[in-house]
Specification:
Number of domains: 1
Number of strands: 14
Radius of gyration: 24 Å
Helix content: 10-25%
Distance between the termini: 73 Å
Structural class: alpha+beta
Order of helices and strands: HHEEEEEEEEEEEEEE
C-alpha cells in the first residue's frame, strides 16, 4: 500500500469515528426531548417544584390563620404559644410557636394534612401586617407535613403599596430544604419573590384574601440535578383554596430542555401540567 493510500484509509477511519461520536453525543443530549422518553424524567423537575410551592403555600396559610384566628382555625390538636418581647425584657422580637400535637404524635389539620413538630414565627407586633416596614420570619422546628421533613426559613417584608390600585407588596426570601420520605433524598433551594396582597386587604376576614406571587429561584433535586425557575405568569393563591389556582412557571434545568409548569385556569384543584418541547403531561400537586 502506498503512503497516499494509507493516509486515505486513516483519514476515512478517523472521519467515521468522529461521526459516530457525534451521533452518540447528540442522542445523549436529545434524550430529554424525546417524546418516547420515560415520563418520570419529563415531569420530575415539575413534581419537585409543585411540592416546594405547595409546602410554602400551606405554611403561609397556616401563619395567617394562626395570627388572625388562633389555633382552633387550624386544628383541635394545634396549640399556639405567644412570646411578647415586652414581657421578655425587649431582647427578642414578638413571636408565636405553632405546635402540631404533643411530642411524638401526629396532628390532623384543617386542610386534611398530617403535621408534626412546630413552626416559629417572629414579627414586629408594633407594626401592622398592612403597614410598610412590617417584618416576619418563619422557621421550622422538626416540622413534617404528610411525611416530608421541612426545614429552612422564610422572611417577609412589607415594602409599601403599589401605585396601581394601592395593593400591598411584600418582598419574600426563601431557603428551602425538604427531606423526602423513605430515604429518597433531599431537595434544596433558595428564591426571591414578590408577593402582592391582590384582594381583601381592606377587610379583616381571611376568606376574601387573594395573593399573587412572582420571582425566581435556584434549586437542586434529590438526584443532584440543578435547575432555576422564573415565574412567567403570576401564581394566584386564594385564601379560600388550599392550592395555587393559576399561573405559569418556567423551569430551566442544567443540561436539559426548558419546560413550563402550568397551574391551570383558576379552578380550586391540585391539577397542573408540564410542557416539555410541546409534549404536555398532566400532574397533581401532593395532597
Amino acid at each position: 500500500m502506498t503512503i497516499s493510500n494509507r493516509s486515505a484509509v486513516i483519514y476515512t477511519a478517523l472521519l467515521v469515528l468522529a461521526v459516530s461520536l457525534l451521533n452518540v453525543g447528540c442522542k445523549k443530549k436529545s434524550n430529554d426531548d424525546d417524546s418516547n422518553n420515560a415520563e418520570p424524567e419529563k415531569v420530575g423537575y415539575a413534581d419537585d417544584q409543585l411540592l416546594l410551592e405547595h409546602i410554602n403555600n400551606s405554611s403561609n396559610k397556616l401563619v395567617e390563620k394562626a395570627l388572625l384566628l388562633g389555633a382552633e382555625a387550624i386544628g383541635s390538636c394545634v396549640s399556639i404559644t405567644y412570646f411578647d418581647k415586652t414581657n421578655e425584657g425587649g431582647l427578642t422580637p414578638d413571636s408565636i410557636l405553632i405546635r402540631f400535637g404533643a411530642a411524638g404524635s401526629e396532628c390532623l389539620c384543617y386542610d386534611g394534612k398530617i403535621r408534626t413538630g412546630s413552626i416559629i414565627v417572629s414579627y414586629n407586633k408594633e407594626t401592622a401586617v398592612r403597614e410598610q416596614g412590617y417584618h416576619q420570619v418563619l422557621k421550622y422546628n422538626n416540622y413534617t407535613v404528610n411525611g416530608y421533613l421541612v426545614s429552612g426559613h422564610r422572611t417577609l417584608t412589607n415594602v409599601g403599596r403599589i401605585a396601581a390600585g394601592g395593593r400591598i407588596q411584600y418582598n419574600v426570601k426563601r431557603v428551602d430544604t425538604v427531606v423526602l420520605p423513605n430515604d429518597q433524598g433531599v431537595i434544596t433551594g433558595s428564591s426571591n419573590r414578590v408577593r402582592i396582597w391582590h384582594y381583601g386587604s381592606n377587610t379583616e376576614q381571611l376568606a376574601d384574601d387573594v395573593y399573587v406571587t412572582t420571582g425566581s429561584g435556584t434549586f437542586i433535586r434529590a438526584n443532584g440535578d440543578q435547575y432555576t425557575t422564573q415565574i412567567k405568569e403570576a401564581l394566584y393563591s386564594p385564601a379560600s383554596c388550599n392550592w395555587i389556582t393559576n399561573g405559569t412557571m418556567n423551569i430551566y434545568p442544567v443540561d436539559a430542555r426548558h419546560r413550563i409548569l402550568d397551574y391551570g385556569g383558576g379552578e380550586c384543584e391540585n391539577d397542573a401540567t408540564i410542557n416539555v418541547n410541546g409534549v404536555i403531561t398532566s400532574l397533581k400537586a401532593p395532597q
